């Protein structure tokens, strides 16, 4: 059975993983520099300190992606992004409730996270040597 969304070639995945590295570092900068503003814009908990931890995680995975030009290491860092995406989805899910006045912004962020998760998984599969 053919895949609904084809896995990119290894070269395409390497190029995409570089772009994901830049995206990761940009998100880390926002989470570290303005966690309160980000939290408020999505209607998340008043306690926004956890976003600094997420920013540190993003910084580590972004740096990891740039530290490994090719090979197995890059695949592990992309899978680490997938794990981080799962944490992000779990964190933003409560903001999707009907009583959140920032619900539309939370849904937009949720859609972006799901889309990036899909790209992360496709890249990880293309780079994974175990297949």
Structural class: mainly alpha
Q: How large is the share of residues in beta strands?
A: under 5%
Write down the Rg: 16 Å
| Average pLDDT reading | 88
Apparent shape: globular
Provide the low-confidence segments as ranges: none
Ends apart, CA distance between termini: 17 Å
Q: Count the beta strands.
A: 0
Can you offer a commentary on this structure?
- With about 130 residues, this protein is an all-alpha fold.
- Helix content is about 75%, strand content about 0%.
- The chain has helices at about 10-35, 35-40, 50-65, 70-90, 105-125.
- Helix 1 (about 10-35) runs antiparallel to helix 5 (about 105-125) and helix 4 runs antiparallel to helix 5 (about 105-125).
- The chain starts with 9 loop residues before the first helix and ends with a helix.
List the helices and strands and how they pair.
Blueprint: H1 10-33, H2 35-42, H3 50-67, H4 72-92, H5 103-127
Label this structure with key terms.
131 residues, mainly alpha, 5 helices
Summarize the structure.
It contains five helices and no strands.
């Amino acid at each position: 059975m053919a895949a609904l969304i084809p896995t990119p070639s290894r070269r395409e995945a390497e190029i995409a993983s570089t772009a994901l590295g830049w995206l990761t570092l940009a998100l880390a900068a926002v989470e570290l520099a303005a966690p309160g503003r980000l939290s408020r814009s999505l209607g998340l908990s008043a306690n926004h300190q956890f976003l600094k931890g997420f920013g540190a995680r993003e910084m580590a995975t972004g740096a990891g992606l740039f530290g490994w030009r090719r090979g197995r290491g890059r695949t592990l860092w992309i899978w680490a992004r997938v794990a981080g995406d799962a944490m992000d989805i779990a964190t933003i899910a409560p903001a999707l409730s009907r009583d959140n006045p920032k619900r539309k912004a939370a849904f937009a962020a949720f859609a972006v996270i799901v889309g990036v998760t899909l790209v992360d998984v496709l890249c990880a599969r293309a780079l994974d040597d175990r297949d």
